[in-house]
Amino acid sequence: MVDKPTFETGSRGDLGRAVLAALIAAFGFAILAYLCVEPPRAYGYVTPIWLSNGFLAAFLLSSPSRRWPAIILGGLIGGLAAGAHAGDSPLVNLTLVPMNVSQATLAAFLVRRAVGEVIDLGRPRDMLAFVLLAGGLAPLVIGSLAATFHTALRGGDLVHNIVTWSLNDILGMLCIGPALLVLSRAKHYLRERPLTRDGVLSIAACCAMALIVFGQTRYPLLFLLPPMMLIAAWRQEVFGAALCSALVATIALVLTLAGRGPINLIQGGAYDQSLVLQLFLAASTFISLPAAALQRQRREIVANLVKARAEAELSEARYRLLAENALDVIAHSDLDGRMTYMSPATHAILGYAPEELLGWAYMKVLHPEDTLRIADLVRAQREASARGEVMAITVEYRAFHKDGAMIWLESRPMLACSPETGQPVAVTDIIRDITARKTLEMALRAARAEAETAAAVKGEFLANMSHELRTPLTAVIGFANLLAEEPDLGARSRRYVDRIATGGQTLLTTINDILDFSRLEQGRIALQPRPVAIGDLVADVLEILAPAAKEKQLTLRSVGGDAMPGRVILDPERVRQVLLNLVGNAVKFTEVGEVALETAYDVQTGRLRISVIDTGPGVGEADQALIFTRFAQIDAALNRKHGGAGLGLAISRGLVELMGGEIGVASNEEQGARFWFEIPAPLASTLAAQDDEGVADFPMPPPGRRVLVVDDNAGNRELVRSVLEAVGVEVVEAVDGEEGVTAAAAEPYDAILMDLRMPRLDGRSAALRIRAERGPSAQAPIIAFSADVRSGPLDPVFDGATPKPLTVMSLLSTLVEALETRGSATV
Fold it and tell me: In this protein, which residues make up the domain named PAS (predicted)?
């Protein structure tokens, strides 16, 4: 019962304030609209400035958002009343008035979104937001629409009407908007910057100058007003700038309409005179308001600097106390290196009392081998300072303790500059004892070197032992197989022989995995690409693993084989090894359902994608990051169900990456898994079949030609060799640019196939050297062989280009064209 009257009183109070705001908006909008239309019309002028929108936008910005609907409604009522009084037709009135109110609302909305609930024109950011959004964007958008509508109804030049209308709105927004916003916060600005005698005089002088300039009709003295407005903005900041802008605009409008002032000297007519007046007032406003905001900001910065300086002086004793008790040495020296201050920590670190080192050159305690390096660093720091740069350095060096022991120190010297001249006058340094850290670093470095050596020895040992184990194991497996074929072998003996063969084969698989992994780590696996039918390769893998799948009653099938091209170029042994690992794992871990081997080929990119999909237990998200690492096993417990060394997927990843591809897995637990890999596999077309019909489809180089292939990738060289030797071309290989230059200088070649990116010497540099050295192959055509040839123009040193991934057609056609072009040019 107590809260209800309070609530009703609050509601009635808010309603009363909303009604009052609506009345003020209606009255203000109507009066200003009348003043902007009727007096100019009486003197034969078009409306030079439209103040109503600026008034309404300022009223909205200075009011809380909950009163905006009442203010907007009041503006609409006032605008409609003013339009009816001016004789506008209902159609014009009902269209233009909402546009004007929409312009003011848009301006207020944009500014509030940019600066927040409270706008302070004393801040450059708020001032800039008001000028650009309220004084620029909103009038241009809505004013252009209103001018277009007005032109459609009453005729006239559309561009002329848009320019005039927009300038009227912009000028009105910038003239009355800032003044009203400043007046709404007058107490705040005057409390921050009270009226001074100089400020009042500057405002009075500005008004007097406006009366002088616009009171006479003989001289164009408009240029005298902006400096006076700037002086008022400088003296009285935002309040003075806004007040002067409003006063000058009022004086200029009244006297110009009365036939006075330099605007009436213009002979172009009322339109030109109005346009010049608008531009003058807009320019004056744009000069004075930002200048006032910047002056206020400058004053605040100066005040903050003074305050900061006072606080620095008050805290100097505290900082000195900290320096005296710091564990690190705080040192101060002149530019010649003589110490002028050393903190008490000097005794703990160097063994000297601080006063013992005063006047010394600090270099005397440094290790002789580090003295020159420290001197060079300090000199470089001083040179950087002379160029106006700040060079922060941290240096580690050796020094001698007073008892003769060598210690490690870390120093961070900084130049101290004179506040008057800005020139370096001293060096301030912070010195820390890092002997323990350096001792640990050296121990760690030695341990790392020892570990790397041990890893290399381990890898070599592993590779050697794998070879040594494979030789007798191969014999064990072979003789076990021979023994199993004996016809008179008993059932019990045959079972034992099968166990020997199975165990030996399992052990051989593990040893092979270890050997392959060791070779991959050492980079000793070389690819041997050649034309292969994907369907045949998939069929071989499925045939090998079919017994294991049948034993578990799993369906083993292939998908997508019908869409495969005839032959592609890849290393079939390595692809088969990856497939056996992936499909073998799928069969091993799947208990019920099926395993599908899916193939897909992208003809555009020449890439082969193979997926192995199973209905097994799946792989959890946490395990997916581990399964491609060495020795990783999801069921790694002692009682795990499935065997294996955990190297299969790591080897598969290494092989796929060696072939230039990528491998991955997509799976959820208990929902099966999809293991996939994608590798480049250029089309071999019918060339590999070497039949007459297929070969006829390709351009053939003349028989007996010799081609030098320069590429740092062995797989690429082997691929080119397999293609060119199939058509009777002799191929010589070079592993990088340096070897390519040497080979070209030693023997003549009919063409040179040059990779662009190689170690030691890149392809372009190698080609330039071959041409410049004038060897037996200097005039041979040089063909660029790289993926880079797709991304830009070909360098003039090359006679052609074939991109990677390689296609047989591209290679042969480019080679034939280059041979013919170079041959005709030579002739």
Answer: 315-385
Return d(Cα 658, Cα 689) in angstroms, integer.
27
| SS3 label, residue 35 | helix
Whether the CB-CB separation of 697 and 688 falls below 8 Å is answered with no
Lowest mean pLDDT among 105-119, 624-638, 703-717: 624-638
DSSP calls for 99-118: HHHHHHHHHHHHHHHHH-SS
Q: What CATH number should be reported for the domain whose range is 458-520? A: 1.10.287
Helices (H), 552-624: 572-589, 621-624
Buried b (16+ CB within 10 A) or exposed e, 436-455: eebeeeeeeeeeeeeeeeee
**In the structure, what pLDDT confidence band is assigned to residue 502 with cuts at 50, 70 and 90?**
low
Nearest to 366 by CA among 392, 327, 396, 334: 396
One-character DSSP codes across 401-422 = -TTS-EEEEEE--EEEE-TTT-
Q: What CATH number should be reported for the domain whose range is 1-184?
A: 1.10.1760
Q: How far is CA 261 from the centre of its chain?
A: 58
Helices H / strands E in the chain, number of each = 26, 18
- pLDDT tens per residue, range 389-424: 777 778 888 888 888 888 888 888 877 777 777 777
pTM of the model: 0.39
User: How far apart are alpha carbons 116 and 130 in whole angstroms?
Assistant: 12
Instruction: Please state the separation of Cα 802 from the chain's center in Å.
Output: 33
Please tell me whether residue 733 adopts helix, strand or coil conformation.
Answer: strand
Q: Yes or no: is domain 697-826 CATH 3.40.50.2300?
A: yes
Burial category of 655 from C-beta neighbours within 10 Å (exposed 0-12, middle 13-18, buried 19 and up): buried
108-119: pLDDT as tens digits = 999 999 888 888
* Separation of alpha carbons 111 and 56, rounded Å: 13
Do 410 and 394 contact (CB within 8 A), yes or no? yes
CATH pick for 321-433 out of 3.90.550.10, 3.30.450.20, 3.40.30.110, 3.90.79.10 = 3.30.450.20
Looking up tokens 């166990």 gives 499
| Residue pointed to by tokens 């079939």 | 572
Question: Among 3.40.50.10790, 3.30.565.10, 3.40.50.1820, 3.30.70.330, what is the CATH number of 525-680?
Answer: 3.30.565.10
CA–CA dist 755, 709 (Å, integer)? 8
Cα-based angle 216, 222, 223 (whole degrees, multiple of 5) = 140
CA nearest neighbour of 554 among 500, 609, 616: 616
329 in Cβ contact with 357 (< 8 Å)? no
